[in-house]
Give the backbone structure.
Amino acid sequence: MAKVGRYLEGEATRKKVLAAAGALIAENGYSATSMSMISKASGVKPASIYWAFGNKEGLFAAILERAAEDFFALNGKVRPNEHKTVGEALRVWAKAITEQPLFLRLLLILSIERQEGDPQIMDAAREIRRASRKGIEILIAPFVETQNERQHKSICRDASRLAIMLFDGTFVSMQIEPDESSAKHLADLVALAVEGSIIKLTTEAKARSAKGRAS
C-alpha cells in the first residue's frame, strides 16, 4: 500500500510541475522560463524536478507530450465513416483548436524559439506532428474516390499536410485577432479548402491515369 501511495504522490507532483511549467512557457516563452520559476510556481524543489525530467529540455518534451494527449483525446472522438463529408469530419477535429489551445501554443513557441541544441524537444514535436498528419490522413481516406492505391495514399498525404498548415494558420490568426465568434467560421474555411483540394487532386490523378491508358 505504501508503494501505491508514493506512486500516487509522485504522479501528483509530476502533474503539478507539468501544469505550472506549461502555463509559464505558454505565457513567457521557452527561453524566458527558468527552472527556478517553475519550481516556485509548482511548489516543487528544483532537485526534484531535475530528478524527474533530467533537464529543461526533458521537461518541455514531457509538457508537449501531455498537452498532445489532451489534444488527441478530443480528436479521438472523430471516427472515419461517421460523417457525410470530409468537411464535416474536419470541423469536429478543428474544435480542439479552441478547446485545447495549450498544445498548439507550445508548438508555436517551439517553432519560433527553435534551438538546434534541443533534439529531445524537436524529436517530440516531430512525432506529434506525424501523429497529427496520420490522424487526418485516416479521416480523409474514405472520401478520396480513387481505386489506385498509390494515388490514394498520395492524395491523402497531400491533403493532410494542407489541413495541418491551414490549422496552424488558423491558430496563429486566432492568437493575433482573438474572436471566439469567428473560430467556427475559420474552421469551416479550412474544411472547405481541404475538401476542394481532395476533389482537385482526385480529378487530376484520374485524368493522368486516363491519359496513361490512352497512350
In short: The chain has a mean pLDDT of 79. The two ends are 75 Å apart (CA to CA). The CA atoms of residues 90 and 191 lie 6 Å apart. The longest helix spans residues 180-214.
